Fold this sequence. Notes:
Layout: H1 4-24, H2 27-31, H3 37-62, H4 66-77, H5 82-90, H6 95-123, H7 134-157, H8 159-187, H9 192-220, H10 225-236, H11 240-250, H12 254-290
Helix pairs in contact: 1-7, 1-8, 1-11, 3-4, 3-6, 3-9, 3-10, 4-6, 4-11, 4-12, 5-6, 5-10, 6-7, 6-10, 7-8, 8-12, 9-10, 9-12, 10-12, 11-12
Pfam family, one: SBF
Protein name: Bile acid:sodium symporter family protein
Keywords: Membrane, Transmembrane, Transmembrane helix
Amino acid sequence: MDSALTTVGLPLALAIIMFGLGLDLTVADFRRVGRAPRAVAVALACQIVLLPLICFGLVVLFDLPALLGIGMLLLAASPGGTTANLFSHLFKGDVALNITLTAINTVIAVVTLPLITGFAIAYFDRQDDVTMPLVEIVKVFALILVPVGIGMVVNDRAPGFARRMDRSVRIGSAVILAILVLGILLDQLESVGDYLADVGLIAALFCAISLVVGYVVPKAFGVTGPQAIASSMEVGVHNATLAIFVAVEVLDEVEISVPAAVYSLIMFLFAALWGTWVSRRVAERETASAT
Length: 291
């Protein structure tokens, strides 16, 4: 898949998405951790600890082929995407918490993503043909953090412009992700049926479990309904573009990107259905407690 789609399109897509994240961010978003420490800590624990463990269990249970198994764990290690903020807004979640979680999780992923992906490569004993060069990892996270920083500067210096750009950047990000997914599926056209058979069910299960865990676990720790919805979207809606970029550009294996592409097709539908149900449930509970 050595084409303009990967050499130009993928880095550009990732940069646009991360710039869009920066447009929503201020320094105060990082300070919000002190005002909602429980909600932030529980959501991050779900994202960083529980999700990789759940994903690894599914990979072992379904006995996935090595490259698809590595792809699933790479996806699990990827932070929440900016789309999570949109879903949280649509379904009355705490969007400010989403923004904080996405920002912190993106920074933490600089460490956790290579560790989890490296573990997956070692588990499947593919170190000889699948590697993560340190230089390439540094480039990836420069491509993540620099656009975020630029977006934050724009938000600080020209907040009106940042607000006007926000919608366009979100739409552009979704369109680019759709093009990337289509490109991967076309590139692997001969094997698409086999891939869907191998990874379709596990991707659907992982998405459903992620959304539910992201809501149920925070609620069990006393987090409010809107914050739990925000956590659910953050945990269940991944930055699939980042996973695809790492698979294709760093690991140099298109097949590893397939789980992220399939997950992208599933997560929008599942997040919409789950968000509709859970937001109604939260609203009903709030109405009942007010009467």
